[in-house]
Amino acid sequence: MSRRSVRSVLALVAVSAACLTVSGPAHATGAAGNCSPTVSITGYSDALDKTTYDGTFVGNISALATDRGGRLAALSDRSSLFTLDGRTLAPRSVAPLADEKGAALDSEGLVVDRDGTYLVTSETEPSIRRYDRTGARILDRLPVPARLRDRATANASFEGLTLLPGGRTLLASMESPLTGDGVNRLQTWRRTPTGSFAPAAQYGYRADANLGISEVTAAPDGRLLVLERGFTSGVGNTIRLYAAELRGATDVFGRDTLNGSEPGVRLAHKTLLADLANCPSLGAPAHQPQPNPLLDNVEAMTVTGSTGRGPHGALRLLLASDDNQSANQITRFYSLTVSAH
After folding, report:
1. What pLDDT, on a 0 to 100 scale, did the predictor assign at position 31?
2. Which end of the chain is more exposed for a tag (fewer CB within 10 A), N or C?
3. What is the mean predicted confidence (pLDDT) over 309-337?
4. pLDDT for 14
5. 3-339 sits in which CATH class?
6. Distance between CA 202 and CA 302 in Å, rounded?
7. What is the separation of C-alpha 182 from the centre of its chain, rounded to a whole number of angstroms?
8. 145 versus 19: which is more confidently predicted?
9. How many helices (H) and strands (E) does the chain have?
10. End-to-end distance of the chain based on CA atoms, in angstroms?
11. What is the DSSP letter of 27?
12. Cβ neighbours of residue 148 under 8 Å, at least 6 residues apart?
């Protein structure tokens, strides 16, 4: 992303700020610093690691989302929807999610819609359901193109979900390519006059070798912030943050197979913002080998605001890792800024 492009993102930030409070032994003790020329880390928190709230394990975090009031929602892939305090991260409520038959979801992607209802993906089918403001009742189930349903790789389908600016377009990212494809697909839906969503354009995105898309979130100018994630036993995690541009990309909705090199097909253009292995470690502990002890299984990301207005501000991001309820992994929150400088 060019300096001018980053500035345009910052100038359009409109969500309320929610910042990570850094204090106490469960939080960052090292000095904040740069991960790259445009990305810095300002803190991390392990305060929720291996904790419970109202009898529910607080972990397995796969998605984060903020609403218009700046409130923070966190989604567990074990079918729990939490609301968290935007400053302290303390849980304020939890709701169990279920499908139409009362079964738990493999819930991975989350959007808080403009009316306060929740759009939630499940990797099982894959599917996207709309829940009421409490999470107790299913209001709608979005249509999913047959190609995505029939050829999705098990446990690697709708991993990310975001609303593009204006709230008229919803986008879900496939964690891995479909069977027979060589690149990932990004599926969109357009909001209908009734307020539901209908399948729309589809785009190709080439993730780095051995990495999958663990999350996407929209910047206010329409670009996507994309988390790519991988894991190598004995080495640890790879976590990279990209900016991706959909403008100019080819709509591949009708293509049966997609390898990204077909004549006339342009994939979403991506630009590396930071490899998180290059961030300062902040004194973070690791429970297994990692190229940087700060790293873990990062799956969640949301824009929480900006540190200022205009070209001299910085976009705030909050990231979270999925500990898989494992002693070798950590529920860790990260506070990042994307700067215009």
Report:
1. 65
2. C
3. 89
4. 33
5. mainly beta
6. 22
7. 22
8. 145
9. 2, 23
10. 12
11. B
12. 126, 157, 174, 178, 185, 187
What gap in Å lies between CA 337 and CA 334, rounded to an integer?
10
Residue 99, pLDDT > 70, answer: yes
Q: Which residues contact 213 (CB under 8 A, 6 or more apart)?
A: 159, 160, 173, 174, 175, 184, 205, 207, 226, 227, 228, 229
Q: What is the mean pLDDT of residues 82-108?
A: 96
Lateral strand order in the sheet of 91-96: 61-66, 72-76, 80-84, 91-96
Residue with tokens 């190709």: 204
CA quadruple 248, 253, 255, 258: dihedral, nearest 10: 60
Q: Is the pLDDT of residue 56 over 80?
A: yes
DSSP annotation string for 77-146: TTTEEEEE-TTT--EEEEEE---TTSPPP-EEEEEE-TTS-EEEEETTTTEEEEE-TTSSSEEEE----H
Tokens of residue 223, six digits: 């670009």
- Under DSSP, is residue 240 helix (H, G, I), strand (E, B) or coil? strand
115-156 pLDDT per residue, tens: 999 999 999 899 999 999 999 999 999 999 999 999 999 899
Report d(CA 259, CA 183) in Å as an integer.
6
Rounded Cα distance, 70 and 22, in Å:
19
Structure confidence by residue, pLDDT tens digits, 178-194? 999 999 999 999 999 99
Question: Which is nearest to 170 in space by CA: 194, 145, 142, 148?
Answer: 142
Q: In whole angstroms, how far apart are CA 236 and each of 181, 192, 294? A: 27, 43, 11
Q: Could you give the CA distance from residue 270 to residue 206 in angstroms, rounded to a whole number? A: 9
